[in-house]
Write a structure and sequence with these properties.
Helix content: 55-70%
Strand order of the largest sheet: 4-5-6-3-7
CATH architecture of the largest domain: 3-Layer(aba) Sandwich
Number of helices: 12
Order of helices and strands: HHHEEHHEHEHHEHEHHEH
Number of strands: 7
CATH class of the largest domain: Alpha Beta
Strand content: 5-15%
Structural class: alpha/beta
Shape: elongated
Bound molecules: adenosine-5'-triphosphate, magnesium ion, zinc ion
């Protein structure tokens, strides 16, 4: 999926399918009930006749409003009767009502002329899916993060390292389970191969499953995309920057691996600052330490990162090396 229009059409298709499914289920319920409870079948055909009568009244030019009132009353009585019969026969009283996924728009995607929130959410989720498609998101979970991989140079260091990483794991699990739009920002830092990407993807997986719109990629990939769009070299009409600024959760992996161009630095500042002022949570991972970050970015970014982010410092020995030695990768 390369542009917004395609994503919008896909979302509308899904909503249409929901509506058709809701109607088909409703038809089956009617057939079933008409067969099992003939009184209801009778009432339903009476109601259908009432509809025709109304048309005739309108055509005949009789006292329409008086007649309409009478019919509405009849209709109401009939519906009450249907509910009673349903319950007496072991069905819920709303068994014959259409059950839409979204009651607000009756699965049309629009309320009056505006996009309904269900359509907006679906579009955001599809965009996130298409943007995250290239990542290794499926491979990482809290379940396959094992503390036994965390190692130091001595048994004492190993014990200390496992204790620290165990706290970080607990923090991340809790963060993912309790995620909301007012969750904190996180800065994960530490040397290469210590599980920063693994844990940030584990958070992404769970938060996505809970229905939030999560964007995950390396800072460098995002900056390249934004640069291409900004300088008009990308013909699609995706606005990556706007998506990053408004995602429920943005995960910027490997900050610091990009070159220091003025465009990249000002874009990064814009992303960090705008999300902060909108109160939207961001997770950043980097293998620069405090000093390294300070050297690379100007003070405006550094002071924001350290003041407004929960800092998690990863420790241990490169797990890629350990896995390679064990022949696991
Ligand atoms: N505790 C762990 N249990 C199991 N696998 C792990 C653990 N920590 C890391 N890994 C695996 O080790 C590899 C390296 O981890 P990861 O990519 O998360 O490191 P990183 O800290 O992001 O490194 P870099 O700074 O180079 O990006 C990945 O394949 C990851 O799935
Ligand atoms: Mg990484
Ligand atoms: Zn809706």
């Amino acid at each position: 999926m390369s542009d917004n229009k395609e994503i919008l059409n896909k979302a509308i298709d899904i909503i249409n399918q929901r509506r058709n499914r809701a109607k088909a289920v409703n038809n089956l319920h009617f057939e079933e009930v008409n067969k099992k409870i003939p009184e209801i079948g009778e009432i339903n055909s009476q109601l259908a006749k009432t509809g025709l009568e109304i048309l005739n009244v309108i055509k005949g030019g009789e006292n329409v409003s008086q007649k309409m009132l009478e019919m509405r009353e009849k209709n109401f009585q009939a519906q009450q009767m249907v509910k009673r019969l349903l319950v007496q026969n072991g069905y819920p009283e709303d068994y014959l009502q259409i059950k839409y996924t979204c009651e607000k728009c009756a699965d049309t995607g629009f309320v009056e002329h505006d996009r309904c929130s269900c359509l907006k959410n679906l579009t955001a989720q599809l965009s996130a899916k298409s943007m995250n498609a290239g990542s290794q998101i499926q491979l990482c979970s809290f379940e396959n993060f094992q503390l036994s991989y965390c190692q130091g140079r001595t048994p004492e260091e190993t014990a200390e390292c496992r204790e620290i990483m165990s706290k970080i794991l607990q923090y991340c699990k809790r963060y993912a389970a309790d995620f909301s739009l007012s969750s904190h920002n996180i800065l994960m830092f530490g040397k290469t191969g210590l599980g920063k990407t693994h844990l940030s993807l584990s958070i992404a997986n769970e938060v996505l499953r809970n229905g939030f719109n999560v964007l995950y990629d390396s800072a460098l990939n995002y900056l390249r995309k934004i640069e291409k769009e900004h300088f008009g070299r990308d013909s699609g009409n995706v606005d990556t920057l706007e998506m990053l600024l408004s995602a429920d959760l943005l995960i910027l992996d490997d900050l610091g691996s990009e070159y220091d161009t003025p465009f990249y630095i000002s874009t990064m500042y814009n992303i960090i600052n705008t999300r902060m002022s909108r109160g939207l949570p961001t997770i950043i991972s980097t293998n620069l330490n405090h000093e390294g970050i300070q050297k690379k970015y100007d003070d405006r970014i550094v002071s924001r990162l350290f003041a407004a982010y929960d800092c998690l410092e990863f420790v241990g020995t490169d797990i890629r090396l350990i896995k390679r030695k064990n022949g696991e990768i």
